[in-house]
Amino acid sequence: MKDNLVLLCGNAHPELGKRISERIGVPLGQIEVFKFADDETFCKINDNIRKRDVFVIQPTCRPVNDTLMELLIIMDACKRASARSITAAVPYYGYSRTDKKDQPRVPITAKLVADLVTTAGANRLITIDLHAEAIQGFFDIPVDQLYGMPIFIKYIKEEIGTDNLVIVSPDAGGVARARAHAKRLGADLAIIDKRRIGNQDQSEVLNVIGEVQGKVCVLVDDIIDTAGSITKASMVLMEQGAKEVRAMATHPVLSPPAIERLEKSPLTEVVVTDTIPIPKEQRLKNLTVLTVSELLGETIKRIFYGESVSSLFI
Q1: Reading across the β-sheet that carries 124-128, which strands appear in turn?
Q2: Is residue 122 domain-shared with residue 193, that is, in the same domain?
Q3: Are residues 75 and 187 located together in one domain of the fold?
Q4: Range of 75's domain?
């Protein structure tokens, strides 16, 4: 039966595709994905996938428009090659931060992407730590949202310890995530009270809610983009007497000037996952990368065999 499981990987993150392949013992399918001289993307699947269950591994990370189009084109090819089912395994869902109409005359791009993915042929979506959980409702197909939390909790228990630990949310929007981590670890919770000023990449940290003096503080978030919020939060925590501050986030987007900010920050360690590939020039000395390949591989197997995915997080 396993012969009917097909793994295809685009150009966004081939290393992750290889890790998943090794984890579940299924070789990557033979596929060519390239651009013509006029910048149009083309793909050709060199294996017979008729009546087989195909999983397309492709985070829609930078360059977002290219990786998204690759995903859509690969799925269209699968649909036209008579695949029995197509599951889009998108560890990082690009455009997830444009999930609502919070200003006049702006798009809801997360919904547009959901429509495109479905129209291209996806029967199911696998993703990790959506920026807004409501995005699951943008799809008319099943969505399995996985969580990076178990990976981080295991790392904290094994490498940091839970003594004198405080889990910190960098803003009010991340309180539920931070609370879930704190509950699983039996740790205290703190919140950074923050007010946005200027454009969306600027923020002013105003206050720390919770006791952090003399504590080991771990900031948890879903995305580190320009790193403005996380680095300012770390500075305020140190000013409030924290013993040390670490940051953990699932998706290392790391847009400029993130690396410069992180290098200058008081953060002892920055822990992320490999949902997005990290170029060598962005590999900080204090950067730790945890793999999601085991989580994704187990999820793919469970979907293929019709087993529960939610039980992974109980």
Answers
A1: 5-9, 53-57, 85-90, 124-128, 143-146
A2: no
A3: no
A4: 2-147+293-313
| Same domain, yes or no: 267 and 302 | no
Q: What SS3 class is residue 128?
A: strand
CATH number at residue 276: 3.40.50.2020
- Tell me if the pTM is above 0.90: yes
Query: Which residue, among 223, 303, 233, has the nearest Cα to 261 in the 3D structure?
Result: 233
pLDDT digits (tens, 9 = 90+) for 254-311: 999 999 999 999 999 999 999 999 999 999 999 999 999 999 999 999 999 999 999 8
Residues classed as catalytic: 194
Which structure tokens are listed for 225? 């983009």
Per-residue model confidence as pLDDT tens digits over 223-259: 999 999 999 999 999 999 999 999 999 999 999 999 9
Strands annotated E in 93-202: 124-128, 143-146, 165-169, 188-196
Q: Are strands 41-45 and 85-90 parallel, antiparallel or unpaired?
A: unpaired
User: What total of structural domains would you count in the chain?
Assistant: 2
